[in-house]
Design brief:
3 domains, Aspartate Aminotransferase, domain 1, alpha/beta, Aspartate Aminotransferase, domain 2, seven-stranded mixed β-sheet, 43% helix
């Protein structure tokens, strides 16, 4: 290290000197000394590294160093997992947490989280109870299933069911249903990883009932039907209905397991141009149905296993259930969501469950929301704004191919490219996530709430003022 570099390094202010700064004392009062010290060391360490690596010749002036530390403190104080504004128009955006929960669910979760609860305590008998009892009865009443149990997601539900009912024999499934979901999670690997032997029947586009029948023998333990909830096969296709497959399973004393995926509890075909099977329909024509809680059901991330009691009883005895069980907050939120379905009529449900509301929101309402947001943003004269028509998507591996007409507010910021605007909006305290169309940053009103308009305005103002 040469003398000139040493001289520059000696000019870096000490941690103690910065801690005595009046501005820093104010920050310490807000955030605590430990976080401030970590941030000071981080900033000073970066300055030292830049000097040693020849990236800079001189240290920043003292005020700039203090400002860097303030930014670092603010950044470190923010939790990694935090609220974002979803302006993408993708209703069940997996990367953004999928289903939004109603306010009454959040209130119940706060009550349960802030103290003790009867999670596994039977208030009637005063003895130990089952955590699944809080939701199993509601699931049965809503779906028509004899019994139910829940685990932490639908992938876990499928694995638990197969591990219990089909781990030592043949599992017969159509080639057209050997699907892959997110994270390279594939049905064939699920079957083999739980000890089953995969038996494929039919072809990618066509499978007939006799294809299943010909493969059933003394080694067969289950028939498996996987609903293609995240893609569609169109054209020269043919499949076997759940009713036909259930009858074949009955004749051979086998369980029919249906992986439904999305978990729709309301027939939405009268509101949107799409027919998706409901859980109730599948329960009626199968022995075990698995589905997600955080997709079309509109609840927390959870996997529901519903069906015949004799099979659910076996599943409850599987040692994997404890490893896959859900916590009190998830159960509390699921219970409130299920009560909504049990106690409210269809129109009330469409208004109270955010996912259903977003799926069925009218174009007129979305246009008005776009106009309202535009008026709020127009207060900033450095923004070039317009409303455009486009389409929203459902996402989350649900209702593939469905496009819902929507309205976007398209934004240009004076002196900032669309890429820079998009990047900066991702890095503010409450990130704003949208999509770019040509040279505009666009916000889809289908996935934005009215109470988020001011957050969007403040975020844009902060970026433009900087």
């Amino acid at each position: 290290m040469n003398n000139s570099v040493q001289l520059v390094l000696r000019q870096i202010p000490s941690v103690n000197k910065i801690l005595q700064d009046s501005v820093m004392k104010s920050i310490i009062a807000d955030y605590g000394e430990k976080l401030v010290k970590i941030s000071i060391n981080s900033v000073l360490g970066e300055i030292k590294s830049n000097i040693l690596n020849g990236l800079v010749d001189n240290i920043p002036n003292y005020d700039d160093i203090v400002n860097q530390i303030k930014v670092e403190v603010n950044s470190k104080a923010l939790p990694s997992l935090r609220k974002v504004i979803n302006g993408t128009g993708i209703i069940l955006h997996t990367n953004l947490g999928r289903a939004s929960l109603p306010e009454n669910v959040l209130n119940q979760m706060q009550r349960i989280a802030s103290g003790y609860s009867n999670l596994e305590f039977d208030l009637e008998t005063g003895k130990r109870g089952s955590r699944y009892a809080h939701v199993a009865g509601l699931i049965s009443k809503i779906t028509g299933a004899e019994d139910a149990v829940v685990v932490n997601n639908n992938a876990a539900a499928v694995m638990l069911v197969l591990s219990t009912l089909a781990s030592k024999g043949d599992v017969v499934i159509s080639r057209g249903e050997l699907v892959e979901i997110g994270g390279s999670f594939r049905v064939p690997e699920i079957i083999t990883s739980t000890g089953g032997n995969l038996v494929e029947v039919g072809t990618t586009n066509k499978t007939h009932l006799n294809d299943y029948a010909e493969k059933i023998n003394e080694e067969t333990t289950a028939l498996l039907k996987v609903h293609t909830s995240n893609y569609k096969v169109i054209g020269f296709t043919e499949g076997v209905s759940t009713q036909e497959l259930h009858q074949l399973a009955k004749e051979n004393n086998l369980p029919l397991i249906v992986d439904l995926g999305s978990g729709l509890l309301v027939d939405l075909s009268k509101y949107i141009n799409y027919k998706e099977p409901t859980v109730q329909e599948m329960v009626k024509n199968s022995d075990i149905v698995t589905f997600s809680g955080d997709k079309l059901l509109g609840g927390p991330q959870i996997g529901v296993i519903a069906g015949k009691k004799k099979y659910i009883d076996k599943i409850k005895k599987n040692q994997l259930l404890r490893a896959l069980r859900v916590d009190k907050l998830t159960l509390s939120s699921l219970e409130i969501i299920l009560r909504e379905y049990y106690l409210k009529d269809e129109k009330e449900l469409l208004a109270s469950i955010p996912v259903l509301k977003k799926l069925t929101e009218s174009s007129d309402n979305l246009e008005q929301k776009a106009k309202d947001l535009l008026i709020i943003l127009k207060a900033n004269n450095k923004l070039n704004l317009k409303i455009i028509e486009d389409y929203s998507k459902v996402g989350g591996g649900s209702l593939p191919g469905l496009e819902l007409p929507t309205y976007l507010v398209a934004i240009k910021a004076e002196g900032i490219s669309v890429n820079k605007l998009e990047s900066r909006l991702r890095k503010i305290d409450i990130p704003i996530i949208g999509r770019t169309i040509k040279d505009y940053f666009c916000l889809d009103l289908r996935t934005i709430e009215e109470n988020e308009y001011e957050i969007i305005k403040d975020g844009l103002c902060r970026i433009i003022s900087n």
